[in-house]
Amino acid sequence: MTVRVDMGLDERGSAVGLDLEELLATRLLVQGNSGSGKSHLLRRLLERSAGQVQQVVVDPEGDFVTLGPAYGHVVIEASDYSIPEVSRLATRLREHRASVVLSLEGLEAEGQMRCAAAFLQALFDAPREHWYPALVVVDEAQLFAPTTGGEVAEEVRRASLSAMTNLMCRGRKRGLAGVIATQRLAKLAKNVAAEASNFLMGRTFLDIDMARAADLLGMERRQAEAIRDLARGQFMALGPAVSRRPINVRIGAVETSARSGSPKLTPLPEAKPVELADLLAEPDAPELPMSFEARPRLVPVGELMADIARPPAPPPTPLPEKDASEVEAIYAEALRAIVADPDASLRPGPTLFQDFQVRCRMAGLARPPLDLPGFTRRLACARAGIFDPEDPEWVDAIALGGTLPDDMLGAFLLVARAAKEGKPCPSDSALAATYGTSSLGRVRRLIGYIESRDLFVTRTDLSGKRSITIPHLGWTTEAAEAG
């Protein structure tokens, strides 16, 4: 099905359309200085394609929330949710194909990057059966895919840049069509901008940005001056979804408007003329004397000396030492509580480690001697139902799984437990929960990696059921459906 989105008129007055199906396959980059009309262009695209395709808008300024009442978009105020909740919302939106505006207006720059990274990554990690076509519009893309780190933490910058790279580089096969807008190409990461095949270049003044825009449009450097002369709302367009040669497009009108618009001149308030010299010469109001209640209390010398001579308070009584069996019991109970929490699989390891330490202190263990790597391994065992790693029945399996990266140990032990007890092979969904992901594709790559290390031998019978053998231990699961 071919759907052309009317974007406006060219220099001859002819309508310029954007092939929506081609756009889904080739992505779009919009560039222009502040005030050039980028948001107006995006709004025109969203309004004219509403009802034809699912739309996901990452909105750092809250400008696009007005699409909700007019076109039925779900508006999510990111400041009202935690990061795991935002990820779950993205997964459900992907499943139900609902159009959404994610408003990041109430967050600081680092919070916006964290939230956008989690949201986009959840869209990217959706199960294959939910890979429906969707336009993913990211306004002010230079905030989420910067060329340098700026003042945000490096891990936040990397997570945000990775999510944007996945959207633009690998999102097409998952039905995600990235539409990104930026004020300056020089501030946008090159590996994100380079993946777009369609370009709409608005007014810009800096030489470096004009040069990059001219290169993307296939124009000679001496022709780049034309980009500086563009009027507000005019864009140079090029790409398989709009035109095979650069054309000048004036974007058409829109039906909704942003909550905040461009500043307009308004008349100054009428007031009686006041002599400025008289106003400046007015005496200041006299300072009121400090009231009696506001004065600091004078402490008598005797009272002060008594306070100095008073012995210090005794230190708190230390918690009694616990033997190894009691410590292991506290560990097991804390790990059981964490594994039973349905949200634990979506929380990062360091956060779960803090939760584990708090639970241990509440149980009377002052300073758990377990460090973060040790906790990661114990948590992997616990997710497979093994709460005592010293149990002789599991020592060999744990040692064998120890040759894998720590994040794979839980999935390995889950299969090992089913194989030892002769139970059906765990499904991809069960392995995904243990591995800490919602992507079944990542689970299949995980199984392939473990099999490449000669730790798994996977067999699929004629009915499509899967069984896994662990040759070093001689254990085999029963055959079961992989899904």
UniProtKB/TrEMBL annotation:
Record Gene3D superfamilies: P-loop containing nucleotide triphosphate hydrolases
UniProt domain Orc1-like AAA ATPase: residue ranges: 28-155
Pfam families named in the record: AAA_16
Signal peptide annotation: none
PANTHER family, alphabetized: HELICASE MJ1565-RELATED (PTHR42957)
Protein name according to UniProt: Orc1-like AAA ATPase domain-containing protein
Organism in which the protein naturally occurs: Sphingomonas abaci
